User: Fold these one by one.
Assistant:
Number 1:
Amino acid sequence: MSQIPYISAKDVEGTLSWHSMVDALWEGHKGQRPEIADQILQRGQDILLSRAAWIGGLGAAVKTVSVFPDNPAKGQPSVQGAMLLFDDQSGAVEAVIDSALVTKWKTVADSLLGARLLARPESRRLLVMGAGEVARGLVQAYPFIFPHIEIEIWNRSPEKAEVLAASHSNMRAVRDLEESVRRADIISCATMTKTPLIKGDWLHEGQHLDLIGAFTPEMREADDKALQRSRIFVDSRATTIEHIGELTLPLASGAISRADILGDFYDLADGTAGRNSDDDITLFKNGGGAHLDLMIGRMILQAYRAE
């Protein structure tokens, strides 16, 4: 009996690329739609979150993470976990993959695919909002898809934006959010805000708005007018419309309707949705989802086996 591998970043990082991860998501959405289920257990502030997906031809995956907010004060990470990858035909466990490795590549590749499909190809100015781990991935990855992109970083704590900007030669930190939004071609927002930061009045024709941060029913990063002025797309209808405040709140208030959500990656893959003209403002909600973890996990296992 062969040993089931445990795959961490040190095993594969040198063999992975943003192009391969974006392509893996794109190819994955040309196949069958997934079966998806989530489970959340809670003990006070501590959370155990499990997300599962099954896609015919790709197999199944279950990613489970614990979220213990008090851990950093004890010198431990707040989020820890792993993903089990199952063979589609036999149901055998093929690999255990560190959850942080999967999430890192999944989250950013999700937004990159949205931008590749919806942003104008000639986009030259990117504004990244946030200065955490996701923002670090975004500033590293976007130039692979948009080689001539210039990057600005904004964060509520300006000094964190300045530290991130100083680590790369093609970017600068900014403090005036409205001014930077108005001059950007692509805005990628990876914050933890519950109060919208992006105002629809600031947007202009041709922009692409990538919203990553909101993941609970109370969170959102863009106001009603931003959604009303945009052609709205999501990575998956099943994991966003009923679950994330970015959409549930304006839907509940009547600011937008379900008909305003024009498509997800499956619709974009079959050509039934997309940008209509260079004047469109496109808005993409990155919701994550276990089916994306599965697609990325398959690519990670392939890279591991190639080693």
Number 2:
Amino acid sequence: MHANADKKGLLTVGGHDPRVTKIGYYLRKYKLDELPQLFNVLFGTMSLVGPRPEVRKYVDLYTNEQQKVLSVRPGITDFASLEFINENDLLAKSTNPEQTYINDIMPAKLTLNAKYIEQHGLLVDFKIIVNTILKIVQ
């Protein structure tokens, strides 16, 4: 991202985010920007599979039921990551990307996170990892 990008607008903008450099666009497109999170996995603060961490601004909007997602270790990939792998494209089509995220995408992701919490296990995690790799290389 460009310097001071955090001060240049919305957190969720979709499409070609003007805060992102040309190289950053391709790093994001091929999910290479996620590689540093592997250090968090090695240090034990994250898991390979689990609900993706959310920005505090959006976590503050969670209902009590949705806050259950915070009770498990966050991960790099999950059901929601697979379902919304093209989230930026969806947001780019919206006239109000942030409202679309808050009203449509975030609740759907939280439902998928709840599904993961109920079903998680070694086989489910393995399937999610394999499907994530397949989606990235497509």
Number 3:
Amino acid sequence: MEDKPRYSRTTDIVELMILMQSRVQGVSLNDIMKEFGVSRRTAERMRDSLMLAVPQVEEIENFKSREKYWGFPTAYMREIISFTPEEIANLENLKKYQQEQGTEDKAKIIEQTINKIRALSRKKLPQFDNAIEILMQTEGFVVQQTPRHKFDLNMLETIREAMTSNKKISAKYNNKNKVLAPYGLIYGAKVYLIGVEEDKGTNPYCYLLHKFSEVKITNETFDKGNFNLEEFSKKSFGVYQGECFDVKLLFSKNVADDVLNYHFHSTQKMKQNDDGTVTVKFKASGDKEILWHLFKWGEDVKILSPNTLKKEYIEMLENTLLNQKEK
């Protein structure tokens, strides 16, 4: 029988094993091509090399797809996977960052993940922990000026339970009774609950999470239809929804390098002009948040369109200047 061609990069084969173990449905050739950035022929060689080395790899039947998938039917990888100090230190720093941002719920989940990894890790030596500590001491975060509103983590768990079971919640919001269908959570400078309030139509609104209290799950279910949280988020410049603007900005050449490496919005298009300036276009709602953000660029940014946004910005600047001149 003719030998199948082998794939020589051992590190990629190990990563492919981990990828297969991490997905219940296994991986397809298209998954391998996308994950490793290789051609279909190379993906076939990687799969064949792994199957020759590890006979436990099996073809997994997938009733929802015509593609073939391969993976491990059992937890085969558990005994050979280990975690490095760099990986754990990175999670520790991520936890610290979430704490700095005031998102204690995210920090708690990361801490639980770290504890599980440590429990599974075969490296429980003092020098292993020392290496993690040294790595953490060599990395840090810039202090950011952001609001930090605290909220009850038990309340957050109740909201998450309601979201996963598609049940409405009753609560006090700014001390007013409300019943709403919780669609999702958005994390930014503040944490927002996206929901549809009873008796206010079908449009989702943004609610500040820290203003909720006395949250309870009701027996009333809801159907959010084709609502997509990611698509909802992309419509606005920040969080709040409103009129959509086709924004066109001109940045001076003084900040060109910063602008060209900056993410303003998912719809942005950039062009560096012959004189060194940069034109940025995007479509988004949230006029106040757009203007607040532009303020940080000072005299190096100019609103080219729309005129309504430009006039609003001029008015904001005039009011700011007037306020500073008042004694």
